[in-house]
TrEMBL record:
Endpoints of the signal sequence: 1-18
Protein name: PASTA domain-containing protein
Domain PASTA: 107-176
Organism: Solirubrobacter ginsenosidimutans
UniProt keywords, alphabetically: Signal
InterPro entries: Ig-like_fold, PASTA_dom
A biological process term (GO) from this entry: carbohydrate metabolic process
Length: 178
């Protein structure tokens, strides 16, 4: 116990298991995440992370994968899982204590209802299906209307541009004249 106190007073830290003492004043790697801000949301399946690190030759890992580091600036592309993501960033350099940070990002899996007003029922149905939504045709025409002309989409519910979960039913009301 007395030896430990003397070593601490001399500015050394002694660790268990017989490791070599190291200076208590060992500098820490400096890590700064610049973009994106934690707490963001995207519909993309990945984001690009960048920041700075000191010393400039430090190594950076994002989610356990080496990031590209040049002159103290680092970048990495991260694939996002649906929903919430916690992205860990670590930096290390020989002779320094490592640094770590994390950011949270949400991958929003909703899609926008496409604008299909004025299109034929077949074209509108294909466009709605292409976004992962389920089209439901509400045909307001009768047999005479169909003989006299081709129906078009007069309204969409939920409205075009609304963000909805994939698989949501989208009602397309069709008629010859809107």
């Amino acid at each position: 116990m007395r030896r430990l106190v003397i070593l601490l007073a001399a500015g050394l830290v002694v660790s268990a298991c017989g490791e070599t003492p190291r200076p208590a004043t060992e500098p820490r790697v400096k890590l700064k995440l610049e973009a994106p801000n934690s707490g963001g949301t995207t519909r993309d399946d990945h984001i690009s992370i960048h920041g700075t690190v000191t010393p400039a030759d430090a190594t950076v890992e994002v989610m356990g994968t080496a990031a590209s580091v040049s002159a103290g600036e680092f970048t990495a592309d991260v694939d996002l899982q649906p929903g919430g993501n916690v992205i860990d960033v670590t930096a290390s350099s020989p002779g320094r204590r490592p640094a770590a940070d994390a950011l949270r990002y949400v991958r929003d899996m909703r899609v926008d209802v496409p604008n299909v007003l004025g299109r034929s029922p077949d074209d509108a149905t294909a466009a709605v299906r292409a976004t992962g939504l389920t089209p439901v045709i509400q045909d307001d025409t009768n047999w005479l209307d169909r003989l006299l002309g081709s129906p078009t989409v007069c309204s969409v519910s939920p409205p075009a541009g609304t963000a909805v979960a994939k698989g949501t039913k989208v009602t397309l009301r069709t008629a010859n004249t809107c």
